[in-house]
Specification:
Elements: H1 2-12, H2 16-36, H3 40-61, H4 66-74, H5 78-87, H6 93-99, H7 102-110, H8 114-121, H9 126-132, H10 138-147, H11 150-161, H12 167-170, E1 177-178, H13 184-192, E2 203-207, E3 213-218, H14 219-224, H15 231-234, E4 241-242, H16 248-258, E5 262-266, E6 272-277, H17 278-296, H18 309-336, H19 338-343, H20 346-374, H21 380-413, H22 416-446, H23 455-479
Parallel strand pairs: 1-2, 4-5
Antiparallel strand pairs: 2-3, 5-6
Helix pairs in contact: 2-3, 4-6, 8-10, 9-11, 16-17, 18-23, 20-21, 20-22, 20-23, 21-22, 22-23
């Protein structure tokens, strides 16, 4: 009965993480029993079961896609992660490393010998090796260079020369080129001789003898047209041509705008260097979005869920320290009005409402502005229009919710003047949140910083201190 229930539970586990966790738990349970056995015969018997469980775990693990393996590794504590990592097939190591987050990748690379790291790169393209290169030890990079053919070595050197966040850093060198004066039938025969076509190949690049880009031959045009006609008759001009020095976000915007699957990368003389594919762009967008979420929360880097305590503390302390300073400032603002609060205790109960609503409103504005900046939708002329627009939105929200809060304040405390002060303070703090919600990310961008870094922390700090000052100041003037 126990075995039947166990098999049923295993069949119901559809998630790779759940399945790996289930198999890992079985393996560790038997391992613990083996270590407790005193009888050699029992130990041998249990050891056989242990090996069977390990084989089952290994077989299931190596059936998974590298992205699923990476997901599982990120979700496991360090000890279990390293055990699972040791079971991954060597030919999958490089692809799994590419799929993991930077923080988890560091723990895996630390656990690998130099020879293992060099071997892992043997199954990767040069652009993929370039993605891993910043995390690899220098001696490993040197060994990788020596192991590559001359052409790939030069491609890797070129890929590593492009700065992070540029189109060159996203570029794939694996492209198929054809001449414009050949027949489609020749192109088809050429493609059939290939072992496999590069991933996400929706078009072939038409170049001259000097590798200058002339146009593209769409795969669907190749398949539906008469094989006897020449490439020049059916090729088209590409919608967009990227340059290696372009900002990667611009390429991402182009892929979204034109629904691209791939796009060429050319130099200043229109010579074809490589291509950018949609999977790379999606990875870039996802990574950028994750970093922006972290930056808005004041985290300086992506953090391993199971990172050592001191490492996590190091990642979080900067903005906590800044938050502590701003909290002291807010407390001093309150302290400045201690006499007012002593005379009218209701002020202490009401002032968190002003600060809280202001912080939420400011965060909404900042989120909109950071997104617009990421999409390059804001320029100098539109910035002022945005400020006035957000002021208008906050004014309307302030009047609506300020009136409601003022009415509730009157009902609770039976004071017209207190309700009026509450409503006016709400309007003023929302206006302050709107202006700073636009100005903070724009100012950060102007000085060359990521507009998402700490914006949420800063706006909350300002609306807290500003809200307290506005509310308690108005109360002191008009109520006391």
């Amino acid at each position: 009965m126990t075995e039947t229930n166990s098999d049923t539970d295993q069949e119901n586990l559809t998630s790779p993480l759940q399945q790996i966790t289930f198999l890992l738990r079985k393996y560790k349970l038997v391992e613990g029993l083996v270590n407790l056995q005193e009888s050699p015969d029992l130990s041998l018997s249990e050891s056989t079961v242990l090996k069977q469980n390990l084989t089952e775990l290994t077989d299931y693990l190596n059936q998974l896609h590298p992205a699923d393996i990476a997901f599982v590794l990120e979700a496991l504590p360090l000890e279990d992660r390293l055990l699972i990592w040791s079971l991954v097939k060597a030919e999958l190591d490089g692809e799994v490393l590419l799929e993991t987050s930077d923080s988890v990748r560091a723990t895996l690379i630390t656990d690998m010998a130099s020879q293992e790291l060099v071997a892992a790169t043997e199954f990767l393209n040069t652009d993929e090796i370039a993605d891993l290169a910043p995390d690899l030890p220098q001696e490993v990079i040197e060994d990788v260079f020596r192991s590559l053919p001359v052409e790939e070595r030069e491609q890797l050197r070129a890929a590593m020369s492009y700065p992070e966040g540029s189109v060159g850093a996203l570029m794939d060198f694996n492209v198929i080129t054809v001449r414009e004066d050949v027949r489609l039938e020749v192109v088809l025969r050429y493609l059939r001789r290939l072992d496999a076509m590069p991933d996400h190949t929706d078009q072939l690049f038409v170049v001259d003898r000097d590798e200058h880009l002339k146009g593209v031959l769409l795969i669907n045009q190749l398949l539906v047209n008469d094989p006897d006609i020449q490439v020049a008759e059916v090729m088209t001009s590409e919608i967009i041509r990227l340059h290696p020095g372009d900002v990667a976000q611009q390429a991402a915007n182009a892929f979204e705008r034109y629904d691209l699957v791939s796009a060429s990368v050319v130099d200043e003389y229109d010579k074809l260097l490589g291509r950018v594919t949609v999977n790379t762009v999606i990875d870039f967008i996802r990574t950028k979005a994750e970093n922006e979420v972290l930056n808005l929360a004041g985290l300086s880097a992506e953090e391993d869920l199971f990172a050592p305590i001191l490492k996590s503390v190091k990642n979080r302390w900067i903005w906590l320290a800044i938050n502590l300073v701003t909290a002291f400032i807010a407390s001093r603002v309150i302290g400045f009005f201690e006499e007012s609060i002593e005379k009218l205790v209701a002020l202490a109960a009401l002032m968190p409402i002003i600060a809280g609503i202001g912080g939420n409103s400011g965060n909404q504005t900042i989120t909109m502005i950071v997104r617009a900046l990421a999409l390059d939708q804001i320029n100098i002329d539109s910035a002022w229009k945005l400020i006035f627009k957000e002021i208008g939105v906050s004014a309307v929200n302030g009047l609506i919710w300020g009136s409601l809060v003022g009415l509730l304040t009157f009902i609770i405390y039976q004071s017209y003047s207190l309700g009026l002060v509450m409503g006016v303070a709400m309007v003023l703090n929302l206006l302050l949140a709107a202006m700073l919600g636009v100005l903070i990310p724009l100012t950060l961008r102007k000085f060359g910083h990521d507009p998402a870094i700490g914006s949420s922390v800063m706006i909350t700090a300002v609306t807290d201190s500003g809200g307290f000052f506005i509310f308690l100041g108005l109360a002191t003037i008009f109520l006391l």
